[in-house]
User: What shape does this take?
Amino acid sequence: MDYIKIFDTTLRDGEQSPGASMNVEEKIIIAKQLARLGVDIIEAGFAISSPGDFEAVKRISHEVDGPVICSLARAKPEDIDKAWEALKGAPKPRIHTFISTSDIHLKHQFKMTREEAKKRAVDMVKRARGYVDDVEFSPMDASRSEPVYLYEVIEAVIDAGASTINIPDTVGYSIPTEFGALIKGIKENVSNIKKAVISVHCHNDLGLAVANSLAAVMNGARQVECTINGIGERAGNASLEEIVMILRTRKDILNLDTRIVTEQIYPTSRLVSSITGIMVQPNKAIVGDNAFAHESGIHQDGLLKEKTTYEIIRPESIGISHSKLVMGKHSGRHAFKTRLKELGYELSDDDLNKAFERFKKVADQKKEVFDEDIEAIVADEILRIEIPERFKLDKLNVVSGTESVPNAFVEMYIDGKHVKEAGFGDGPVDAVYKTIAHITKTKSKLLKYSVNAITGGTDAQGEVTVRIQEDDHIVLGQGAHTDIIVASAKAYINALNKLEYKKKEKKVKVV
Ligand code: KIV
Ligand code: ZN
Assistant: This one.
């Protein structure tokens, strides 16, 4: 039995999903959960890209035990140096450096010849080896690169000291037979390939990221780069849970496995979607709400007689428990802590106390507290702690109905100064948003407003997610409350605070 290394890039490529940016505290929570999941490598960020990314790589290096911690770095001296500076506290650091090898990228974007790119790759791998033993190299856009040149670059970087060669299908262009043949070609034509692990990194533009990764593995790749829920640049990356469960479920013919603790898959998926605000589609394989839901009478009948008639995976094996505890006002701290753990959160005692206090308040207002309510409590009460609250809601009063023009009276604090204003709108939320926009003088525009996690009945806690944009900064705000208008105001103000924070971070352009 061969083991496939799982390289998780949720915190790097996953964060490149529009609107998915996470703050440092959120990244640490996810990284700790990835360690519990048992991933082999965590790509914690792209150290040079922003102070926030640098801080995340640094803190994850110090605070997360188990996996190799990796930082991405362009093939540039300053990137490699910065990656090392962020990684040096990690017991097992890895520098992942990359440069394109396709003519289309070299000509139009990098403005380099093939020889120049090869030399740069070799020089930067050597520079990275000056800091760490574990160096990964990616020839970006490998699937559209001329194979003989690709072989030459790979051979040269292995000679320079790279121990993992990652083959990206950067634009998700390949199809499985072709991508499998590319890996086979590399194995057969790169003379020193045995000194390195072949890895793959597939994007999902044609919906083939998982199929291409599988084809690669069947042709000798031994590391797969993937993300939780398949999030990532554009259409996303190969989904970790699908890769892992394909290998586990079809071990009979593939004779391959991973070291993933599969029972942690569902909690990790829930954690990532609640932190990023990117919901999982109901019919998504493995972790979608419908993945284990049976609707047809024939299927239900078969299932009741024998589960394996219609279930190829036991839900328990990915951490979906059937004996779900019903959470309400009589639930104690122990049950609350257990439920949080099942949802992917292991909070410090202080944070647990804060969340529990809020849970009790919510439970007093409604009959049953659903998982989404608990996630909303954590998102609202715990995860925003790192964002300075320049704007703060004090009081909110809204009048609307069939006979009146919706109007809002908002009282807020801005940098500690109390301000109040009234305004009208097309509906109560519109009135609140227009008034807040006027008070804060924000230049941002609202890209998306959604009410999620309205569960159960009309007494449910609503979670509002908004996405706003100013220049090239896009942020997500969340707010939860049993009153949907209050949740909307909180989500908007949360987004405005994140935007202020973001505007202070200087990002370099990621190629
Ligand atoms: O998609 C890609 O090519 C990448 C590289 C940086 C590995 O994300
Ligand atoms: Zn990528």
